[in-house]
Structure formats: structure tokens, C-alpha cells
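TEACHING EXERCISE
Course module: macromolecular assemblies
Task: Read the component lines below, then compare them to the predicted structure of the full complex.
Student: A.B.
Group: 4
Components provided:
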Amino acid sequence: MFAPPVNRLITELARFPGIGQRTAQRLAFHLLRASDEEALALADAIREVKETVGHCEICFNLATDPTCRICQDERRDGDVLCVVEEPSDVIPIERTNEFRGRYHVLGGALSPIDGVDPEDLHIVELLGRVSSNGVREVVVATNATTTGEATALYLADAMRERAPAVTVTRLASGLPVGSDLEYADEITLGKAFRGRREL
Amino acid sequence: MFAPPVNRLITELARFPGIGQRTAQRLAFHLLRASDEEALALADAIREVKETVGHCEICFNLATDPTCRICQDERRDGDVLCVVEEPSDVIPIERTNEFRGRYHVLGGALSPIDGVDPEDLHIVELLGRVSSNGVREVVVATNATTTGEATALYLADAMRERAPAVTVTRLASGLPVGSDLEYADEITLGKAFRGRREL
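Instructor-supplied answer key:
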């Protein structure tokens, strides 16, 4: 029905999670209607982000330098590490203003069914940080989903073995079960931080 | 909160109609997580579409050649022209299989409040096509919105003056009032085609 370049654009847009064929078509026509300047600004922004944004060498958060802005910040408390699944999970936690420690981004959650095993996540690096530096507490803030819970239990076991002096905590059950952390509101997430319990 | 390239990507994504700040953030993180290959395929598809897709010289539909595939198709009936607001409106009409004529894309609808006057649309070109070629009927398929209706009435007046022999029709009231043509289902739109009435 469409010219091949239009079809290709629709196909690429439909790869976004939650964007179906119909919405992708609508977005494509928006780009066709838009000025060259506006459409190419999006293309350039995608290219720039893939070229300049990488992962922090220490915590694996997003970073444009070798280390991220939080790891570079001397005022952050190095005693407490917050472990999250994805870089996008750092944002809602920062927004609560409840946490002044540092982060560790796993890069996903354990899910043997999907072929995600401990060696696919940044768990070795986490255990290294926890046992070598003066870390007092690790807050496990993986999602309140089956895979997030399984990951939390796995981490608690691994840390009891490798760094028994470190307290491992988990966000309180303020989070609605089955939901993703990325969508939690500040108040619920703040409560969950204050009510964290030892694993 | 984010690195500048990430913020820039979110800003560009939030320009899409119906995509808010939150969704734009989610789409941006999807692109950050995606492989370079997948993300750059989208950037390239946007660039390609803006470089290769232009407007048909005859009907102003989208085209990768000087004229579009419908204008190039000898089997299409040159007696009947269907006038639509946007290139995206051609698709749902083609899908009904009710129409075998040719199109004319106005490039919008009259809206003095938004500064869209007759000279901003391809109305002169439409009147030229209608008075010089053997056009028998013009089906006005602008949206069933206030601006779409106003455009239809304006076109009916203009054509009565310039080409009094041509019959001007309007899609039947099968379309729910206030809705955009782009979202109509095939059956409703097919009925509207069959029930078109003279203006």
C-alpha cells in the first residue's frame, strides 16, 4: 500500500514496546508531514545517543564519560549501594530524594526461561564492589515481579557468602505486586525505601 | 536528571502527537537498550523517508517518483476525483475497495483561526484539474470535523463557479461526527462512499 521507504519506517517504529502497527503508521505520517529539520533532528538525536552514551565502568548506569555523574559525585554516600535492574530505574529512585548512596545496575533480572543467568548480569562486579570497598548496606531495588524477586533472593544468598558483614535489604512492600518499578509514584516509592526490610 | 544527549532524544520523541513526556522517556530507554543496529535502522529509515519521499506533481499524494502510483495507474478512472486532506487519508479509502477513481490531496483543511487560508491548500491545482480534464464528479472526502466541513462547502462553491458541469458530492453521514477519517473502519467508510450526497 505504501512506498517501500514508508513501509520501512513503519516497521522500525513498530519495534517500540507498546507501539502497534496502527500507531506506528500514525507516527510515520507525522514524520512525513513534519519539516525536514524536525524529522532529521530525531534521527540525529538517536544517532548521537547511540554514539555518545555508554555505561559507567563502576555501576553500569548510563554515562557519557567513563563513569556516571552519580559515581563522580563526592557527596554521595559510598556506604550504601542500591541495586536496580535497568538504568531507567535510577530516575524514579532519585526523584524520591530518599536515597543519597550509590547505585549498581544489573542490566536485567534473572530469568532462566529467557536464558538470563547470573553471568549475564553485572553480579560479579557487584560482589567485587561490596567485598572490597567499605559498603555497609546493599538495598536490592529490583522490580516487584517474579524475576525481580528471584534476583533479590539470589543476591542475598550470594552476599551472605561473599560479604557476610554487609546488610542486605529489600524495598518494602509498598510497591503494588506485579508492577514495574519504573512506573511507581514518588510517595509509594519513598515509603518503600523507608520501610525496606532485611533479607 | 539525564545526560544531555538522552534529554535531547526525549524532547524529540515527545514531539510526536499523543506521545507525552513519560512515554517519550520509555521510548528513549528502549532505544538506549536496543542494539546499535536496531536504533540506527530507525534513524536511517527517518532519513531515507525524508530524502526519497516527496509529493505527486498531479495529486500531491506521497510519491517516490514525480507522480504517485495511483496517478501512474492507467486502469484508474479519471472521471472521478476524491479530495482528501492528507496523504494518510488515501489509505483507508483504498482499503474499502469502493473507489476506482483518482485522488487530490489538499494538504490540510481550511482553518482561518490557525491561519490556513485557501491559498495554503492545493485548491488552485484542484480547480485546474477539474476544469481542464474530463472530470465528471468530485467526491469531497475531507474529515467530518468543523474544518473539514467548512473546506467541503468552500470547494462546492468554488467548483459551482469554475466548473458548473461537474457534480460535487460529499461522503454520507456514515462517519461519526467529530472524528478523523484516518481512524474510520472499512465498513463505515464504505457505506459513506456509497451514500455520498450532492452538495
